[in-house]
Amino acid sequence: QFLYFIGARQLESAGMGISGFRKWLEERNNCKRVSKSTTDEMHHLFLDMNGLVHSAYDRAQPTAAATRSNLFAMLDRIYNKFPARASINVIFDGPAPIAKLATQRARRRNYADVDGTRPDGMSEGEITTGSVFMLELENAVAEHLEKRLSAGTLPCTEVFISGTRVPGEGETKISRRLMHLAARRGDGADGRRPHDVNDCVCVVGNDSDLVLHCVGATPYHNLFVVHPVSFVMTSVGDLILSWTRGNSAPLSMLQLPSARIDFVFLTQLAGCDHYDGIEDEAWRAWHTYRGLRCKPHRANARLVTPVPVDANKPELGVRMQINTGFLREVLCPPVHGGSHSSHKHSTRGKKQSGTVFQQARREWEQQQKSMKKGNPLVGSNLCEAALWSLGSACFGVCQNFEYRWSGQQGSIHALRKAASSLDLKKVCAPTTDPRAPPPAPLPLLPLQAYASITVRPKLLPVALRTLVQNDQRFARLPSLESITSVLRTVQELFAEIRPSMLTPMEQKLMSFASPVEIIRTPSGSVQRTELHVDSLDPRDEARFVDFEYSVPQMVDGVEFLVPYEKWSVTLHVSKTLAAKLLGGEGADKSDGAAACADEGDEAADDESCSSDTSAVVAAVDTEASAPVAEPVAVAA
Q: Are the beta carbons of 235 and 10 closer than 8 angstroms?
């Protein structure tokens, strides 16, 4: 436990994840030891590989061979501790959004300071998207898992690998995969386990963002985030259910759908690897939010609301908008000091009444000064950044890889000013459908991303290192501070590179790849979508996996999950599935998809269903108008 908290503190000091989120979890006793009962019924295992590789890296023995050996020993311990019956999902970080580039370069400078005292050995900076080391390690892990799956030494029937060449950060790809598994139907005859809302899911990693992404895209309630070394866990289901307990502002079960989304939004306002936020003020805002939601006139209020992109074109999906009126109440809570008349007739004495009144007056004056200090443009930009991050956490898709933070420090003053001075349309981010393709091509290929992040020329591929060391145009690349200058220099650098100047592995890093799915069928044969061969040979391309999402699940008769809301998200919808979603001919009325066509369901106004084969419908949470149900006892 001590080692775990030391590691968590190091991650906090390095700036990994949401600002202050790990501390907030610890203070609420959400970090506990893994119990044997938790691991007995494990179905899906997720591995955040970049975090595991960092944990396997030993600065006392900094070699690629030692790191690989430590990693495989760690993986064996994890397999034994969490014997997943259905699937093992190996997730590597892919090229990240431009907004994270400054943070990544700052971390690599810290690695460079440590590595500078050691002339030989592997640098921790090589544990980075786009490096040859990570691509070779990915191939080695895939080959190892394929052999064990073929030999039957793994209890699962499926291995899913999202490699370093698949775009997106690891936690975002985990969110997407969680929803992919939740879309499963059938009887499992193809080796793929159909979705069961009671399945137990374990996500192993050391980044606090993993907890937030699991809250945002949770199709399961038995879901745990576990540290890879200490095996200290955070139960996502218990975290969300804790909002319904206690005497201090308990939420009802029917409020969980929107509260879950609003929690992610407020948490993103704290700041993360992509932008600077309001830090601890976000947790105070969450406390105020819960108190307001307990009041009858705010029981159905939401901070973030899905609205159609075009009411006349439902196939365009929805975008997320901010309720600035409610946001203003959350950021500027009412001053509690009592009215003048109540103090006048109080029996506690004039002195005590005057003190309470003066304190309330001071709080009101501080709020007014706060709004005068803030820049509404900075507050509006912070809201836009939080909505952009919300898409990755809740939908598993980065909406815009080219998004960049303005660079100004977000503050509670700026947020209050924005919420008080701007109308709803102005403060809302122009968020397109989160399931739509990015509005622009990905700006950086894996090798380009690696060159942009790396601040030590020694770690660059030979062809790039030669140019950086010998050409004055590129000599300043490691020391550049401006992200615009870094991107421009990298673009000019790669314009000088010809494919023949790169090794076969480096050439593969000049293109994107697709996830790999390896399945052991009931007959014992192994099927895969992409063949992993020798690490020196290029890998074949594979098609992206199509994701299909369907409708609500029930837990003991209460709409509680998938993911704590009613939702309908489809990609590449077949005509048969589209007919089911619309409730047309051949639609199975017992299927959850019929909920989209239920005229008596108020959620139909918030959900968009389309028969277009390219339709994209964003996740929409709804709240029923039925009486509040009693909390459901769900086994942890």
A: no
Give the pLDDT confidence of 565-576 residue by residue, as tens digits.
333 222 233 334
Q: Is the dihedral of CA 98, 104, 106, 109 positive or negative?
A: negative
Cα angle: 88, vertex 91, 94; to 5 degrees: 160
Token readout for 65 is: 């061979």
Alpha-carbon dihedral sign for residues 458, 497, 478, 102: negative
Domain of residue 232, CATH code: 3.40.50.12390
Query: Are 183 and 233 in the same domain?
Result: yes
Segment (H or E) for 282? helix 281-293
Rounded distance, CA 148 to CA 305, Å?
46
pLDDT tens digits, 362-382: 665 665 555 556 688 888 888
Same domain, 207 and 342: no
pLDDT at 528 over 50: yes
Residue 216 sits in the same domain as residue 270: no
Determine the Cα–Cα distance for residues 364 and 353; give it in Å rounded to an integer. 17
Q: How far apart are CA 20 and CA 11, in angstroms?
A: 11
Q: In sequence order, which residues have a C-beta less than 8 Å from that of residue 193 and are 6 or more positions away?
A: 43, 85, 86, 87, 157, 158, 184, 199
CA gap 257, 244 in Å, rounded: 12
pTM equals 0.74
Residue 374's domain comprises 253-427
Pairing of strands 553-555, 516-520: unpaired
- End-to-end, the C-alpha distance of the chain in Å comes to 20
Category of 386 on φ-ψ map: left (φ > 0), alpha (ψ -120 to 50) or beta:
alpha
Q: Which of helix, strand or coil describes residue 160?
A: strand
For 230-244, 313-327, 423-437, 447-461, which range has the lowest pLDDT when averaged over its residues?
423-437
Pair (200, 234) in one structural domain:
yes
Rounded to an integer, what distance in angstroms lies between the CA atom of residue 279 and that of residue 15? 12
Whether 203 contacts 214, CB under 8 Å = yes
Among 227, 244, 261, give the residue marking a domain's end.
Answer: 244
CA nearest 38: which of 212, 304, 261, 223?
Answer: 223
The answer to whether 129 and 449 have CB atoms below 8 angstroms apart is yes
In SS3 terms, 549-610 reads as: CCCCEEECCEEEECCCCCCCCECCCCHHHHHHHHCCCCCCCCCHHHHHHCCCCHHHHCCCCC
> For residue 88, what pLDDT band results from cuts at 50, 70 and 90?
very high
Say whether both 237 and 259 belong to one domain.
no
What is the Cα 485 distance to its own chain's centre? 28
CA angle 476, 479, 483 (to 5 degrees): 95
Q: List strands edge to edge, sheet with 200-204.
A: 31-33, 232-235, 222-226, 200-204, 44-48, 87-91, 158-162, 516-520, 526-528
Q: What is the pLDDT of residues 530-550, one digit of tens each?
A: 433 332 232 222 222 333 322
Closest CA to 24 of 234, 221, 332: 234
